[in-house]
Design a protein that fits this description.
The protein is α/β, with parallel strands linked by helices and about 260 residues long. It has eight helices and eight strands; from the N terminus they run ααββββααβααβααββ.
Length: about 260
Amino acid sequence: MLLSDLRETVSIYSAKAKELDDECIELQEKLISIDPLRQERYEDRRTQLVFGRETLHLVKDGKRFPEIEFADEQPGDLDLSMRGLTHIPISAYLMHLHTLNLDSNSITSTRFIRNLLNVRRVNLSNNLIERLEGLQHAPSLELLTLENNMIAKWGDVVSGFVFWREGKMGRTGGHVKVLLGENPVVENEGGEYVLEKRWEDVGEVGVEIQWKSEEVRLTEEALVAAEGTVSPGESYLEAIRRVSTTAVEFDAGTCSGTA
């Protein structure tokens, strides 16, 4: 009976804490709208509150301080997309994650990834990132999606992979794929095929960068497949490049264009 009462009390307090969190988040949103001069401060406070609310289930009984005791059932995936986050606070809560979805927020930096020792897949599409940083400190990272951000310069791409092999903590055979389609750097630096060649010249082992958007890549592959076999003496990649130089009419709801 005592254990049952205790569990009920914990549940009541957890529900009350969530209710207070929601009220505080709503207050920050109001302050953002009426006090634009301090907008960034309120956005950061809101991010802290939303992050705390959305990750509370990762610890036992909502116990945040002074010691973290992780919940028995740890999810491998966490979806924090479309939460209005401006950054990801440094947190031990995320140490067990393998997949983190942060699509469609207002995040400006990739530095937080260095704290995610077990994460394999991170989706940061549709954010406000201008420069890659800290990726060499994520030893388990396999896929990083950064489509439709604000990366505009070649140097801001290369900066993310300084000391890549050393930063992978001595791992051999580590490989990461980075999707960078729909960033200004593609157009600014001469297109995806120019960037492919430049990246080959860098010679960074274990890093594969895809400069075109995943949607366009899949469309081109489908067109090559629809045409039938690849021409004699032509590689599959060459066939895709050939298709990408023709005018393509996409289905309604996507786009149309010429490479």
